[in-house]
Amino acid sequence: MNNGKQINAASGTGPAALKNPVFTYAAGVLASIAYDNGSKALTYNGDGTLNTLATTFSGTTTTKTMAYNADGTLASISET
């Protein structure tokens, strides 16, 4: 577990790829990914399922919000 620690990894291809990610964990789960040219932020529901994934690239943020069925399976993903 990397609680509160950052991990560097190489990724990304092409001119519009997010590059040089740095992963940050909080309370044992992935909280954010910072890139040279953007970022991703994740939030979770009380049961540990992913609630939102916000991606920022070139000054524009796109947020995906997950909705779940009563049995905990993913029902839908909306984007704003």
Q: How would you characterize this protein structure?
A:
By secondary structure, the protein is mainly beta. It has strands at residues 6-8, 22-26, 29-35, 38-44, 50-57, 60-68, 74-79. The chain has a 7-stranded antiparallel sheet with strand order 1-2-3-4-5-6-7, with no helix packed on it. β4 and β5 form a beta hairpin. The protein starts with 5 loop residues before the first strand and ends with a strand. Residues 5-15 have low confidence and may be disordered.
Give the helices and strands, then pairings.
Elements: E1 6-8, E2 22-26, E3 29-35, E4 38-44, E5 50-57, E6 60-68, E7 74-79
Antiparallel strand pairs: 1-2, 2-3, 3-4, 4-5, 5-6, 6-7
Strand content: over 45%
Runs in which pLDDT lies below 50 for 5 or more consecutive residues are: 5-15
What is the first-to-last residue Cα distance? 32 Å
**N-to-C series of helices and strands:** EEEEEEE
Biggest beta sheet summary: 7 strands, antiparallel
Number of strands: 7
Q: Within the largest sheet, what's the order of strands?
A: 1-2-3-4-5-6-7
Would you tell me the overall average pLDDT?
A: 85
Percent of residues in helices comes to under 10%
- The number of helical segments is 0
Structural class: mainly beta
Oligomeric grouping of the chains: single chain
In short:
The protein has 80 residues and is an all-beta fold. It has strands at residues 6-8, 22-26, 29-35, 38-44, 50-57, 60-68, 74-79.
